[in-house]
Amino acid sequence: MIGSIDCMHWQWKNCPTAWQGDYGNRKGQKSIILEAVAGFDTWVWHAFFGVAGSQNDLNVLGQSPVFNDVLRGQGPNVTYEVNNTVY
Fold this sequence. Notes:
Shape: elongated
Strand content: 25-35%
Structural class: alpha+beta
Number of helices: 3
Number of domains: 1
Pfam family, one: Plant_tran
Order of helices and strands: EHEEHHEE
InterPro entries: Harbinger_derived_prot (IPR006912)
Low-confidence stretches: none
Mean pLDDT: 77
């Protein structure tokens, strides 16, 4: 189950000159986008780095495989207990 999903923009100070056009934003800053998914128990279930190109949070989420399982109704196998019954 997804507890929290977030995209973080890391500024890339030493971006190679040949890649600056791909990793730059409209302000001229170079950055890499990290998408992370954490569960309610603070376990990190997934991490995804945005690829080169015109990237924003929505584009990274669209390319990320994190929602594929959710759309198929699948999730990780987790054992839990409710009212002394183990599921």
